[in-house]
Structures are given as structure tokens and as C-alpha cells.
Amino acid sequence: MGTYMKQNRTFRLVLISIFTAIIILQNFVPFLGNIQIGAFSLTLMHITVIIVAIALGPLDGAIIGGIWGVITFIRAFTFPSSPIAPIIFTNPLISILPRILIGVVAGYTFLALRKTKLFEVGSMSIAALLGALTNTVLVLGLTYVFFRLHFIIFTSMNLNADQVLPFLLGIVFTNGIFEAAAAVVIAPTIARILIHISQKN
């Protein structure tokens, strides 16, 4: 597993179960996982994935991210989290892949940085930042790539093709900055606690 917790399988499995429950609750309990603003929502669920990726490793982070992605994908068909979810998140490359890669990027970034002279919190903060940006950039970037499949969104907002990129970049510099800042502040704090508890065990 390549993490602080690789020798404590029971503790690791308990944490994975707990975080699986948390990510499920965040998907269905209002304001626990998303803060709705107009047609879009600011997500907090990436923080849960990043915490797992840092504390348990990239594989476990990818698993929790994948669970979030699958729920997002299913909800897009059955119980959409926002008005645009049925159009964007019915594509698994947008709903699932970026969530998995949050755990991969955050986890491997932390593993790489903790081998350097960078202090632990700094390594966690950078890992959290890159994990959050992975979600934002990939979701919006893939949305732009598949724009022609999702043109209904932008037509309904009176946007033409030339306006799509500035529109998405606007989200990156609003939602993305907030989500990244929240991850940098919250994820290292909780991940450090979990790592220290594991070391004591």
C-alpha cells in the first residue's frame, strides 16, 4: 500500500468503510457534500477523497473517488444533483474518471513529496491542491471536449460556441478556487490526525 497504514489492515478497512459511508451521505444529504449556487454546485466531496488518498494511499483514494463517481453517474439518470447533471454526468468519462484520478494524483503526490525535505503539512497541502484541481480541470475540460454532445446546456444559457470556453474558465476561477482552498485547509488537518492515530496503533 505504500503508506503509514500498510501494516494495519483492520484499521485501514474500518476507515475505508467509514469514508465510503461518508461519501454516500455527502451525495444524498443536502449541504453535506454540495453547496448549491444557481445551476452549479460547489462540491466538498473531493476533500473526502483527498483525505483518504493522503492517509491511506492512492489506491484507496481512487476507490473512494470511484464510489463517488459511480453515485454521480447513477444519480444523473435517477435523482440529479443539479439541473445540468443529467446532461453532463451521464457521461462516465466526466462523472467517474476525474473522481478516481483525484485519489491517484493526491495520493502519489503526497508519497513523492514526503520523501523530500518538504515538511509533512506542506506535502499534504500541495497534494490536496493538486487533487482538487484534478477534479475541477478534468470535469470542466472534458465537458468542453464533449461540448457538442452537451450543447443543450449552453444553448439554454444563450451561449454560443465561442462563449463556452470563457464560461467554463469562469467556473474554474470561482468554484475551482473555493474548492481547492477548502481542500488545502481541511484535508491535511484530518489526514494528519488519521496518520497519527494509525502510528499509535
Automatic annotation (TrEMBL):
InterPro entries: ECF_trnsprt_substrate-spec
Key words of the record: Membrane, Transmembrane, Transmembrane helix
A Pfam family that the UniProt record links to this protein: ECF_trnsprt
Membrane-spanning residues: 12-29, 35-56, 63-81, 93-113, 125-147, 167-195
Name of the protein in its database record: ECF transporter S component
Superkingdom per UniProt: Bacteria
Record has Transmembrane as a keyword: yes
Keyword Membrane among UniProt keywords: yes
Organism ancestry: Bacteria, Bacillati, Bacillota, Bacilli, Bacillales
GO MF, any single term: transmembrane transporter activity
